[in-house]
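User: Structure with flavin-adenine dinucleotide, tokens only please.
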Amino acid sequence: MEQTLAASGSYRFNRISFFLNGKDILVDLPPGISTLDFLHKIMHMYGSKCSCNEGDCGACTVVIAQARKGTIVYESINSCLYPAAKLHGKHLITIEGLGNPEDLHPIQKAILEHHGTQCGYCTPGFVMSLFALLVSTPHPDKSEILAALEGNLCRCTGYQSILDAALDLSANTERSDILPLYYREIEPKLFTFNIPAEEYDRSEASLHMIQHYHKAHSIEELCQQLARYPEARLIAGGTDIMVQVNIARRSFERLIDLTDILDLSEIQKEQDGIHIGCGVTYSQIMDSDIIKRDLPYLVELCSLIASKQIRNFGTLAGNVANASPVGDSLPLLLVLQARLALMSQERSRELPVSEFFVAYRKTALQKGEFIREIIIPVPPQDAYIDTMKSAKRKSVDISSVVSAICIPKDGTALLAFGGVAATPALSKIFSKLYQAGASTEIIAERVAEEFSPLSDVRGSSSYRKQMIINHIIKYLEGHDDKASLAY
Ligand SMILES: Cc1cc2nc3c(=O)[nH]c(=O)nc-3n(C[C@H](O)[C@H](O)[C@H](O)COP(=O)(O)OP(=O)(O)OC[C@H]3O[C@@H](n4cnc5c(N)ncnc54)[C@H](O)[C@@H]3O)c2cc1C
Ligand code: FES
Ligand code: FES
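Assistant:
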């Protein structure tokens, strides 16, 4: 239940084990504390910086190494939003684990030599983003470097010097130059890690924003917990929830984390479509061979969402459940006629995404129910499918208007928008107009009349209507070109 918590009470602490810069750590965490607060307030390690505390600047970037499907993945994340309880069984690498003033890490040396630092506040974040990139991608090219750094802001350097340093590193270093030696000892331990996490109650006279942070370990346990505590809030990546905690200062009595449930982190192709588990992150979607082959536009869309760091722990299901009218994935899921597999202790059911959003930020989820999977039917090969996002910046920006279109060669044409109504919505008239052969101008005008967008900081109502028109013109003109290639 969201409420203002009393200044004293019983809190459920998380006792977790993990590795920090090559060392074993066993620690008791106040419920829901972020990794950045853990580093600053418990470990007194101040190398990772806090600037925005909401995932926008990248100054707090750290790297998480974890075992996934027989390999160790190294991913950058925003430590200000990443709940520290998630670190259990993982390896947290911070700027302190790479170099020091007497013995700089090669990335730090390159940034220094290329004059890529001035006030230095952003530098640890840039170093950690480059570290994750160089460990995961041998000799990255310029576009891969820019994608890895899109979540890092610098107010001083103008970026070119940082890019020069990254290009130099890409050309002249190998993975073995970048990884600190302790990785050899830690990686095998990540594969075999089996220490259970513990939780225990502690009475305290301090104010915590979150009272209980529980990690579920099986679907059965998750259903039981939701049945027992129907007011509890689920947390997947936490990229929406933790912003509410850090910035809006919202308190939560009970959060239930589902990301340790391996069954919910799968992407599978079945007869009725591609099943994406609710624990699957955007980065996992972008790396999936199934998605790359059958739903390439979903990969493209994910690359427009937030930043590399956020995509490394934010989930598609979290985007759906959050039900923001400008959630970027929602128009595409609508035109692909995706369905949600919903589950509670009592029952399982499927619901089309088009029936999920019932009013502004209100969904059809019932008490004790969660989204288990998103099921996306594989569209015909010859369908024209595309998405478009209008925002002020290319990365780390919420859309003013977002849209998606699906025109199968012989089926119903679908067009959906976000940011132009209280919920993401399919156009009710597009299909008829398109099939009747109406001109692009008529279709664009009529669809714009169908919606009544609000004015807010991201755009006025008239701007949004114009975006509807622009998106449609671009789609339908682009469609002619793409159609001639596809057919
Ligand atoms: C800096 C920044 C940039 C961002 N940029 C974008 C952007 O470009 N486009 C965009 O669309 N969004 C953006 N977001 C919003 C956010 O990252 C996404 O909505 C993300 O997909 C949320 O996923 P999550 O796993 O982190 O959700 P969480 O924060 O864990 O949860 C979000 C909500 O969903 C509920 N929930 C989570 N999983 C389930 C489930 N399985 N069943 C039922 N309920 C569930 C939670 O209770 C909560 O209410 C941005 C956020 C930040 C901080
Ligand atoms: S402090 Fe800005 S992203 Fe974390
Ligand atoms: S060096 Fe000052 S913000 Fe980047």
